[in-house]
Amino acid sequence: MKAKQAPLVWDVPGLVAGVDEAGRGPLAGPVVAAAVILDDMRPIRGLADSKTLTAKQRERLYDQIMAKSLCCSVALASVEEIDTHNILQATMLAMRRAVEGLRLKPAKVLVDGNRLPTLDVLAEAVVGGDARVKAISAASILAKVHRDRLCEELHAQFPLYGFASHKGYGTPEHLDALRTHGACIHHRRSFSPVAAVMTDTGISVDVRISEASLPAAP
Q1: N or C: which end of the chain has fewer CB within 10 A?
Q2: What global pTM score does this model have?
Q3: Which domains does the chain have, with CATH numbers?
Q4: How far apart are CA 93 and CA 189, in angstroms?
Q5: Looking only at Cα atoms, what is the longest distance across the chain?
Q6: How does pLDDT run along the chain (218 residues), one tens digit per residue?
């Protein structure tokens, strides 16, 4: 009797990294991406899509991810890169930097969404991955917490815009501040609400935050 052929296995054995981003939609600030390789021997309870968690839950899980993961990396794409390349390409750039920043090289990368950055390892896009894949959930939490902390720093420098509350998103409060005070250096000028306000007001506040004042990537 002819033996059955073993099914083909496409996944290579080895470490798997999850990747996600935070900050594609806001009108200001960089887009942040994170990559995480979890340790199966040190499970983290409560991992979920960062959008479904409270700020306190995210902060608690952030500390656990940093302490228990085999390795993790957070990377940015700047406002200048967003305005130059567009937000999609800047997001892919931040994701690639996050993967390249990992201390250990993964055998495979799982990326939330339906697009993949250019990588030199096997990668798979997972729609809804931030809710389905624990490593991606962990990456979503790191990216979200890191970006929220960065917005707190922006708020300290530019309190008139209210970055601490809206995190750069186009809320009525933020749009009112833009109309009143114009755009600061951290606003994304390629985004239509910012471009429209700048055209109407002609005001631009060119004050930079020093790199030393921003939260360091883990």
Answers
A1: N
A2: 0.86
A3: 16-152 (3.30.420.10)
A4: 19
A5: 82
A6: 444 444 444 566 799 999 999 999 999 999 999 999 999 999 999 999 999 999 999 999 999 999 999 999 999 999 999 999 999 999 999 999 999 999 999 999 999 999 999 999 999 999 999 999 999 999 999 999 999 999 999 999 999 999 999 999 999 999 999 999 999 999 999 999 999 887 755 444 444 343 334 444 55
